[in-house]
Design a protein that fits this description.
Strand order of the largest sheet: 12-13-15-14-16-17-18-19
Mean pLDDT: 91
CATH topology of the largest domain: Rossmann fold
CATH superfamily of the largest domain: Alpha/Beta hydrolase fold, catalytic domain
Shape: globular
CATH class of the largest domain: Alpha Beta
Number of helices: 11
Largest sheet: 8 strands, mixed
CATH architecture of the largest domain: 3-Layer(aba) Sandwich
């Protein structure tokens, strides 16, 4: 027993000393800065001033270790059993990454984990340049709240969760607010826009600057057998019952990225009277008819053509954004815009370089939120 107590005490003293002296001493000589999403106290991965990233992984018994950051990087093993590598420069904002140890894909224990790519993934944050850093930074402004709400879905016959952002003045002032229903992409869930997307921080800053109308944002789980039914039968009624939400299509917006954009488009086809503000980020009906999660494209365009005047009257703002030509949905959206032009559907289009990634979608909600409910 004495030996056990001594071991525990020694461990505690060691951890205390490390916490008090270790990190401070280490940081003096280490290059760059720890990533925003590192586990507390972890020094790696570290982001260099030129946006390259240094990784260190302790795996003394491994034969091969790699970092997957959209590109595979082979790590080099040191005599101490620590593997290291330095990546190419990375684009600003949030990126998923994975650790491969002897061919097995795992999340890096040095990083916070995020649900993306249909699994728990590691997250890396590359600082923004000075012209954009202010948009996504936590600042000394009034802050809203993000509520985690559980409800029973009769559409899926299961308990589900939604995240609901309420603006800073929600608890102090009376009155109702318009609602944006904001959807994540494939391989993600209702947590995405709140965690990876920084939606509450973005809206807090915009509202404080007078650039966005105070609004409620409801983030539902789009992994459902019928999103339109889930939204109209469960999501909207729940929000309008439990929050001070303005009703009527003129007080509702619907937006989504990738798969969430397809959900948004398909919902418009089924319910042209549901919302007045529409955001489609890195998405578009499939260029060839059909596809995972999408209805028949030609059929949808036929509905738009038949009801063109209704859509153009009901939708006050339809805004499409893409992450440039490297975005995997670029050709789908390009074809969709061509068909919209042919039919006469009104929309605005915006490109922001970055491909099919969260930096593009953060920029998209930053831009879109300033245009709606005005």
């Amino acid at each position: 027993m004495k030996q056990l107590l001594s071991a525990i005490l020694l461990c505690a003293l060691s951890l205390t000393a490390s916490a008090q002296f270790g990190p401070a001493r280490q940081q003096q000589d280490l290059p760059g800065k720890p990533s925003l999403w590192n586990i507390r106290g972890r020094q790696y991965p570290r982001v260099l001033p030129d946006s390259r990233v240094i990784f260190r992984i302790q795996a003394p018994n491994a034969q091969k270790v790699q970092i997957d950051l959209g590109k595979r990087y082979d790590m080099q093993k040191g005599e101490d059993g620590v593997w290291t590598c330095t990546t190419d420069p990375q684009t600003e904002g949030f990126h998923y990454y994975f650790l491969y140890i002897d061919g097995v894909q795992v999340a890096d224990p040095n990083s916070e984990s995020f649900y993306g790519c249909s699994m728990m993934s590691s997250g890396l944050e590359i600082p923004y340049d000075a012209s954009k850093a202010d948009r996504f930074a936590f600042k000394d402004v009034p802050h809203g709240d993000v509520h985690r709400k559980r409800y029973f879905s009769h559409v899926d016959n299961a308990w589900k969760t939604m995240y609901v952002y309420t603006p800073p003045m929600y608890d102090q002032e009376k009155g109702d607010y318009p609602v944006l229903y904001l959807q994540h992409g494939g391989g993600e869930d209702e947590r995405g826009w709140n965690q990876q997307g920084l939606t509450d921080i973005i809206l807090d800053n915009l509202i404080a600057e007078g650039k966005a109308v105070p609004m409620i944002i409801a983030m539902l789980d789009g992994n459902t057998r019928d999103f339109t039914a889930e939204l109209t039968q469960e999501g909207i009624p729940f929000v309008e019952k439990n929050f001070r939400a303005k009703k009527g299509m003129e007080n509702r917006g619907l937006a989504g990225l990738s798969m969430g954009g397809i959900h948004t488009l398909n919902t418009l086809i089924a319910r042209p009277d549901l919302v007045s503000y529409v955001g489609i980020f890195s998405s578009g009906w499939f260029k060839n008819n059909g596809g995972p999660g999408a209805a028949d494209s030609d059929k949808n365009y036929g509905v738009l053509r038949e009801k063109k005047d209704i859509y153009n009257k009901n939708i006050k703002k339809m805004w499409l954004s893409m992450g440039g030509q490297e975005d995997i949905a670029y050709e789908n959206c390009k074809e969709m815009r061509r068909r919209f032009d042919e039919i006469g559907i009104k929309y605005d289009y915006y490109e922001y370089p970055g491909g099919h990634t969260w930096p593009v979608w953060r920029e998209s909600i930053y831009q879109f939120a300033q245009m709606i409910f005005k």
